[in-house]
From TrEMBL:
Superkingdom of origin: Eukaryota
Keyword Cell membrane recorded: yes
Disordered: region residues: 358-383
Biological processes annotated in GO: G1/S transition of mitotic cell cycle; negative regulation of G2/M transition of mitotic cell cycle
Organism: Chrysemys picta bellii (Western painted turtle)
Lipid bilayer topology: Multi-pass membrane protein
Domain G-protein coupled receptors family 1 profile: 76-328
Cellular location(s): Cell membrane
Keywords: Cell membrane, Disulfide bond, G-protein coupled receptor, Glycoprotein, Membrane, Receptor, Transducer, Transmembrane, Transmembrane helix
Main location as per UniProt: membrane
Record-given protein name: G-protein coupled receptors family 1 profile domain-containing protein
Annotated Polar residues bias: 366-383
Length: 383
């Protein structure tokens, strides 16, 4: 009698489950005969989409991308940090911003193995809510610290090129350090609410880490702010400053063709890398938020369609950790000279290379100062 009752209950549960699957399933082309619908939690608010996102479609791409960026970005940014530190000792103002940028990238690169494990595990976060929130916090801060530091670099170069005479003697390392400190502090404080958001909490229905699907009103409005303040305004600044640098270099008669090409290509590279790495990611954020506001009751279908594209654009934003050192340091002639000088110092015993160190330090300072002021001052004289 007891076995018959248990068997009856199991049959009933299975019939109910099959009935629910039949109701969910009718007509969603290409998604295993299931229609994407939000599953409601106890407070009747959508918590997750069903069926889940096509994680498998982007799993290999994300894991490979994270692995390559980590393998290339870690040594490249360590190398960048070392070279920019040498340039900072040589009184190079621009090196302050590049040094902060490389530290920011190293902070983010340290979390990439966790993201790779998370993706490989079918987007199930099993390292605790606090680890999820801290990792997400670093991800958000890295994006916007990087963007704002790129703006600082472009503005500094714009002032040095377009207003060379006016800015001579007015650009100091203390000012650059203060700006970098304020920028880091502001971004870190603004993103502190990440630690109280529900996106980092794992529940019985949600095991993801900062992948809230469908969106909610809070995240939709937050995405609008991220797009406007964190991308659109910096993008305008970058385009304007680098265009003016390009323009001032073009009309110069005192610079050689090689010097002109170096300045122009670097200005173009800044804009190109910025647009490739950050524009697609932020455009997807904007599109998803607009779609959610227009179709709050049925946004899961759209999220399902756009998920793989969003994952590919996330890879582009991650690639910025490799692109920044290549653009700003490895392409610098004086950075390479400082690197060779530092290797030369290590080859000599400490008892016999004191004069060599003093000489190299003086040459490094003069080279850094000449790099920033000599050719740029000639531009302003012509104007």
């Amino acid at each position: 009698m007891f076995l018959q009752e248990r068997t009856s209950k199991r049959t009933e549960i299975r019939l109910i489950s099959d009935s629910k699957e039949t109701q969910i399933g009718k007509s969603y082309p290409g998604v295993s005969a299931h229609r994407c619908v939000p599953i409601m939690n106890e407070s009747s608010s959508p918590e997750v989409c069903y069926p889940p996102m096509p994680y498998e479609n982007s799993r290999r791409l994300l894991v490979v991308c994270y692995s390559i960026v980590f393998a290339l970005g870690l040594p490249a940014n360590c190398f960048t940090t070392w070279l920019t530190f040498i340039q900072i000792r040589g009184k190079n103002v621009l090196a302050i911003y590049i040094f902060g940028l490389s530290l920011c990238e190293l902070m983010y690169l340290s979390t990439l193995p966790l993201w790779a494990i998370y993706v490989q595990n079918q987007h199930r976060w099993e390292m605790g809510s606090m680890a999820c929130k801290l990792t997400g916090y670093i991800f958000f801060c890295n994006i916007y610290i990087s963007i704002l530091l790129l703006c600082c670099i472009s503005i500094d170069r714009y002032v040095a090129v377009v207003y060379a005479l006016e800015s001579k003697g007015a650009r100091h390392q203390r000012t650059a350090i203060f700006i970098t400190f304020i920028l880091f502090s502001a971004v870190l404080v603004i993103h502190c609410p990440v630690f109280i958001l529900q996106d980092g909490e794992q529940t019985s229905n949600r095991t993801t880490c900062f992948e809230t699907l469908p969106l909610n009103l809070q995240l939709a409005y937050f995405n609008f702010a991220r797009f406007l303040i964190g991308f659109a305004i910096p993008c305008i600044i970058l385009i304007f400053t680098n265009y003016r640098i390009f323009q001032s270099t073009e009309i110069s008669n005192s610079l050689g063709e090689r010097q002109k090409a170096k300045v122009k290509y670097l200005a173009m590279a800044v804009i190109t890398i910025f647009l490739i790495c950050f524009a697609p990611y932020h455009l997807v954020l904007l599109i998803r938020s607009i779609n959610f506001l227009l179709h709050q009751k049925d946004s899961c279908s759209f999220e399902h369609h756009i998920y793989s594209t969003s994952a590919a654009f996330l890879c582009l934003s991650t690639a910025n950790s490799v692109a920044d050192p290549i653009i700003y340091v490895l392409a610098s002639e004086h950075a390479r000279k400082d690197f060779y000088r530092s290797l030369t110092r290590w080859r000599y015993p400490s008892s016999t290379n004191t004069s060599l160190k003093l000489k190299n330090s003086k040459e490094s300072q003069e080279a850094a100062q000449t790099s920033e002021n000599l050719n740029l001052t000639t531009l302003s004289k012509e104007q």
